[in-house]
Design goal:
- There is one protein chain.
- The chain has one domain: Glycosyltransferase, CATH 1.50.10.
- By secondary structure, the chain is mostly helical.
- A hairpin with a 6-residue loop joins β8 and β9.
- The strands form 4 sheets. The chain has a 3-stranded antiparallel beta sheet. A two-stranded antiparallel sheet has the order 1-2.
- The protein contains 16 helices and 9 strands.
- Bound molecules: alpha-D-glucopyranose.
- Alpha-D-glucopyranose (GLC) binds next to α2.
């Protein structure tokens, strides 16, 4: 069974491979996505480490001069996706979007090089490029020096349609958005996708940033949406720490020191987002200064960073208490806004499971991590390699033959410490 799962996962990664980058799935997502690629490399490392490094290198070949790494690279023309390159209009040689995504590259590169030391020399330039991205985050997304960075568009979180964004999103207007045709609802069930009003707001923000010529140092203050997502920050912290270790090995102590300093300040500031009542971290609405009382998986994903062990233990207990048949639901099932089938408002994503399990196991919560991994593999055995899953029934949802789902399965099955 394990062998069959493994070959099925490898087959998906190969089918979605476009040579130097991998598409998340055919149809719905025909380009390269930022955090998908970094996590995909973790799967590829089990059968072709050199190809895994190429995946990350291709992403960073499209880094902007300011340091930002875009969330989508439009390598090839495809009219099946909206908003496409013309809407973003970022003026890049190969078109890209103008916003970013969770910075998991530092973590992914370290994990890849740990198992493929022969690639170290080739990976040197990436250490410099990833540091530039981390530096960009703190310079442009934390202008007041709070230690934590904000996202300025829900899509940056990677948890596109989470309940977390509902309140701050009300501040984003819908008037004046140019007419458009959605493509996502042609590939997936509209009942599982964002509403029309939400989509108008997504596009309003894109038009606002485009109107400012994509000068990334101006966008944060110009955005009516500025949210500090604890999961996003945890990913950045973990990547800074992992990259610091790599930089040290490369003899780049200044880069190591820079990454470590960013992580230390952020870790200290993260404490302000802890909610004892919810047993997890919460998002902060930077415009109002209020915590957003929305118990999503973003505040559980925070375990990916070296948070205090009492908080990791509490997060493990919170996940147990959610009591869904499969774990980890992207929103607490008893909380307002939960929807077992709608995008990021309840369903399970294996990439989130992977990062939570990894963090919990490092924090000494091995049993909690094992329960998440077992549940993830049960989902695959019952429902195949879907984009996401209903946490109550395990029903597969969204795209099929999904790349990063397959990559996570390889990690769950083959990673050294996983039995
Ligand atoms: C959706 C997800 C995002 C992912 C992308 C491609 O937009 O919300 O996290 O990167 O699909 O898989």
């Amino acid at each position: 069974m394990t062998d069959a799962l493994q070959s099925a996962a490898i087959k998906i990664l190969k089918t979605n491979d476009r040579g130097s980058y991998t598409v998340p799935t055919k149809g719905l997502y025909p380009f390269q996505w930022n955090w998908d690629s970094c996590l995909t490399a973790l799967g590829q490392r089990h059968f072709d480490p050199a190809r895994a490094l190429t995946e990350i290198e291709t992403l960073f070949a499209h880094q902007w001069p300011c340091g930002m790494v875009p969330h989508i690279i439009f390598h090839a023309r495809d009219d099946g996706y909206f908003p496409g390159p013309d809407v973003w209009d970022c003026g890049r040689p190969v078109p890209t979007s103008g916003i970013t995504q969770p910075p998991v590259a530092g973590f992914a590169l370290k994990r890849l090089l740990d198992s493929a030391p022969e690639l170290r020399t080739q990976a040197g330039p990436l250490v410099v490029k990833i540091t530039a991205w981390h530096r960009w985050f703190h310079a442009t997304r934390d202008p007041q020096g709070s230690g934590l960075v904000a996202i300025i568009h829900p899509w940056e979180s990677g948890r596109d349609n989470s309940v977390d964004w509902d309140i701050p999103f009300e501040r984003v207007p819908t008037a004046g958005v140019a007419p458009y045709t959605r493509r996502d609802t042609q590939h997936a069930d509209p009942a599982h996708r964002p509403t029309k009003e939400q989509y108008d707001r997504y596009i309003w923000l894109v038009e606002r940033f485009r109107g400012l010529g994509w000068q990334t140092d101006r966008l944060h203050d110009a955005s009516p949406f500025q949210v500090v997502d604890p999961g996003f920050n945890a990913i950045l912290i973990r990547s800074c720490l992992d990259l610091a270790e790599l930089a040290e090995d490369f003899g780049e102590s200044a880069l190591a020191q820079e990454n470590r300093a960013l992580a230390d300040t952020a870790l200290a500031a993260l404490d302000t987002l802890w909610s004892e009542a919810r047993g997890q971290y919460l998002c902060l609405d930077r415009i109002t200064g209020a915590l957003i009382d929305s118990p999503s998986s973003g505040g559980l994903l925070t375990a990916f960073a070296p948070i205090p062990s009492k908080h990791a233990a509490r997060i493990a207990a919170t996940i147990d208490a959610r009591g869904t048949r499969f774990r980890v639901a992207s929103h607490a099932p008893d909380a307002a806004g939960f929807d077992a089938k709608r995008y990021w408002r309840g369903p399970i994503w294996l990439v989130v499971n992977y990062m939570i399990a990894d963090g919990l196991s490092r924090a000494g919560e091995a049993d909690a991590a094992a329960r998440i991994i077992r549940s993830s593999l049960d989902l695959i055995r019952n429902s195949g390699f879907a984009e996401y899953y209903d946490p109550l029934t395990g029903e597969p949802l969204g795209g099929t033959q999904f790349t990063w789902t397959a990559a996570m399965v390889l990690e769950f099955l083959l990673r050294e410490h996983v039995a």
